[in-house]
């Protein structure tokens, strides 16, 4: 699913989802993230992702902030390094 100049169609945020960069690993399946809406949040890695996807500091992820507690969120997607670079080039993520 890439075109002639190497651009891939990437998963974009749905309603209520925000791009975020992992800033700190907290342990117990939790990470600290800096969201692109300007909020620092504690994000939870759901069980379906824990064993299949390794999340490290500086990874770009999609998070879904909790309705009832805005400083917390769930990680819903992790981007590969080249996909994250593409998002930065296209201006979706600022460092």
From TrEMBL:
The GO terms describing molecular function are: translation initiation factor activity
> Which Pfam families does its entry note?
eIF-1a (PF01176)
Q: What is this protein called?
A: Translation initiation factor 1A
- Specify the S1-like domain's residue ranges: 6-80
Q: Name the UniProt key words of this record, in alphabetical order.
A: Initiation factor, Protein biosynthesis
Top-rank lineage group of the source organism: Archaea
Q: Which organism is it from?
A: Halomarina ordinaria
Q: Function of this protein?
A: Seems to be required for maximal rate of protein biosynthesis. Enhances ribosome dissociation into subunits and stabilizes the binding of the initiator Met-tRNA(I) to 40 S ribosomal subunits.
Matching entries from InterPro entries are given as: NA-bd_OB-fold, RNA-binding_domain_S1_IF1, TIF_eIF-1A, TIF_eIF-1A_CS
The question of whether Protein biosynthesis is a record keyword is answered with: yes
The answer to keyword Transmembrane applying to this record is no
Q: What family does this belong to?
A: Belongs to the eIF-1A family.
């Amino acid at each position: 699913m890439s075109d002639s100049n190497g651009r891939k169609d990437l998963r974009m945020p749905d309603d209520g989802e925000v791009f975020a960069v992992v800033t700190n690993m907290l342990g117990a399946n939790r990470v600290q993230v800096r969201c692109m809406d300007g909020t620092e949040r504690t994000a939870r890695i759901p069980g379906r992702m824990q064993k299949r996807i390794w999340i490290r500091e500086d990874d770009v992820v999609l998070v879904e902030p909790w309705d009832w507690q805005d400083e917390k969120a769930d990680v819903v997607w992790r981007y590969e390094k080249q996909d994250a670079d593409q998002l930065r080039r296209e201006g979706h993520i600022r460092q």
